[in-house]
Amino acid sequence: MDTQLLISGVIFGLSLGSIFFLLAIGLSLCFGLMRIISLDQLLYYSVGAYLTYSICTVTGNAWIGVLGGMAVAGIVSFAVERFVFLRIYERDITFTMVASFGILFAGIGVIKYIWGLAPRPVPIPIEVQVSILGTEIPVYRLIVVAISLLVYGGIWLFLNRTITGKAIRAGIEDIDHVEGLGINVYRLFTVTFIIAGTLSGLAGGLHAPLIMVDPVMGLEVLPFVFMVVIIGGLGSIKGTLVSAFLVGQVISIGSLIYAPLAQMAPFAIMLLILLIKPTGLYGSKLLKR
Amino acid sequence: MMNIFRWWWGILLMFLFLGVLRIFLPLPFMNEILIFSIYTMGCNFLLGRVGFISFGQPAYLAVGAYGTAFYLYYFGTNPYIGILLGILAGLVVSAAIGPLFVRLRSDYFALVNLALAVIVFYLMEKVLAGITHGDNGLWFLTRMSNTPVLNLGNHSDFFIFVFILAMALWAFYKYLDDSIYGACCLATKINEDKLKFLGYDSFNIRWQAFIIANTTTALAGALYAVYFGFVSPDFTSPSRAADPVVVTILGGVGTLYGPIVGAIAYTGMKDLISGYIANWELVIGLLLVIIMLAGEKGIWGTLEPLLAKIIFRKRTVSGFSTNGDKNL
Which chain A residue lies closest to B128 (C-alpha atoms)? Predict the structure, then answer.
């Protein structure tokens, strides 16, 4: 394979992996802490992307759009958490999953109602290209990778240096003890859910210029995001980062070798990893509940 | 005699109801409901009895559908043999991958199955495109020969065939529920350690349940193939992966009539609402959320105690018959 193709493939994989990471981190936190499978993160992803499109067409600046998308995604996730999830946290995991699937579906309906069915293009905010080892690389993709690494750093600091973050980490290990210490776990849940929703909105906003924005974009990335969460190990942030970049690379390099491999190979890898190590790469053994 | 009647009457009543519906509702809708409920039954058995939630049911559906389609497109013309081969394909595939899958925990099981569905999808769409004709699919509607007694090419005959088949399956699942094996399945869901302690092999029980459920799903796939006379990779598209799970929970997990009630409700809502409003997703999504908020028992799980109260004037002990597990 020629080097230029390989380098652009690696960069493409990195940027794809960054988007997956931003999306999967929300799912992973929600599963780890609240024991819910929150399919509606994909809705906040679409909301973020659509608002980026709308604000970008009005103001002409995609970055404001991304910020707006994040804000609205955060607000929507807060509302959903208050009205739906707060009532069903206690239930079995399958029920929260179906409820979140319902929210995702309803949200797609709303999006179709507001923005219509047609896919929308979002202009790339930075058209500049840099040359790395003789290969032209779009700067925007590098920025996406940088942002996701910044988010990883931020999340790491938040979880390890603030008291709320420490409580969340403790909650992932053993929620009953945290509650026993007198911490209001439902407030933790709300905070986590809003963080997750905002990050999903960020993922949507950043992904929007790279793809066409259409109503079912959430359903299209759904299997991949799930896969990232599972490979990394549920509830592990570091595992999510590693597996997101792994999956991104597998998709991107795989498509260079043989096109159908792009979609199939990650799932084959997930199958293998799960059969060898059923908890995922960094899954904690404590999570047996 | 009386006991036999009592065992059958629930099923007969349900199917009498369906037969009456046939007069009022259009034929394609009824066929869709029946096939969909067979599809859901497998998922219902896995989820309600064994405690496995599976997002990969489309994979097994596609196995059945393609098993039938390959025969009808390349080799023979008899749809009955095609359906039999579809079932056989489902049986072989689920028996082969069962031992790998049933070791996993429920949430991982769901996602490994999803992975399988995606793999089957791309296998059919791209990798095996030479045989499956990729997205164009296999068309064999005109290749199917007319069969005596029930001509499956004819939609009203097909309805009768599926009707009888669905009824037989119901009787089979009801029989399973009543048998010791059914109790063992439920025990693997509720308390696996105790089941092992009692000397049963939980791995074998799960494996068998996995085979039974997925063969049922493959049968639904085979029926879809014969009904449409057409098979494409869309059968196993990952975006439809949640359908059977949603319908199962909508109808009521683990209840005997849940699948058919859920199938009627889901297909009906989809058809009815999409006739009036363009974006039916909104309504279905909201309804799902409302049903989930109202209770975790689903439509039939909520209705059953009420019906029992009205029909038998019996008072059900609260919290006892919630899951339709009266027989156990």
Answer: A260
* CB–CB contact A230 B111 (8 Å): yes
A-chain residue closest to B129, CA distance: A260
pLDDT one-digit tens code per residue, A104-125: 888 888 888 888 888 888 888 7
- State the pTM of this model: 0.78
Contact with chain A for residue B103, Cβ under 8 A: yes
Is the ipTM beyond the 0.85 threshold?
no
Asked if the Cβ–Cβ distance from A263 to B249 is below 8 Å, we say no
What residues does each domain of chain B span? 2-312
How many Å lie between the alpha carbon of A137 and the closest alpha carbon of chain B? 30
Tell me the residue type at A90.
Answer: E
